[in-house]
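hi! just following up on the protien thing from before. the input was this:
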Amino acid sequence: MTSADTETEDATEQATDEARQSLLEAMTSELGDALVGSHLMPGTDLWIRVDNAAWSDTADYLRNRQRFRFFDWLSAIDWMPSPYGRSLDSEIGDAEAPDDDADDADAAVMEQGVTGGDTRFQVIARVHNLSTDLGVTIKADVGDDLTIGTWTGQYPGADWHEREAWEMFGITFSGHPGLRNLYLPTGFEGHPLRKDFPLLTRMVKPWPGIVDVEPMPETEDAE
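and the predicted 3d structure came back as:
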């Protein structure tokens, strides 16, 4: 890479960071106290955390006021450490069901990542402005009622993603046109992506990618 290429790359990165800073300032002004956390990492990305009640309004602002028209993805996170420990690489049969105080014990060690959080569950989404090549990651806490607004009115592509989060985490997206199963049979009990959902097959037999590793065959030196 030549010095001219390096200078061009640095200038582009600086312009992008200035655009991120401008977006952060605009969102802070627009959302006020509903913007509860943010993190701008120069040359990397911008993360915004908003109040649960402002989740759908944030989508509307980004799409219609800031022209973030490309919906990338939406999902949920369960920040509670698994009460079963690292059962994927544990000895067969050593994983035990959590006791009644597991939630209280784990609550003190939950870490909600960039921009923080106050609840066990969070919803997170990613959108882009194709004109400026700028992306932003948005997240919000999900309270005890496990309910948050839908993004389908602003981003129809969120339909499938919200159905998945509803099915796998048990989070309800109010206003969604039709929350129904994508993967699991009707009547299935539980939400498989929650940390306290027991992966029984891993308790019977550890993850094969960890225990069934064969050594590389020895090679003979060419004569």
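Confidence is low (pLDDT under 50) at residues 88-95, 102-107.
The CA atoms of residues 10 and 43 lie 9 Å apart.
cheers
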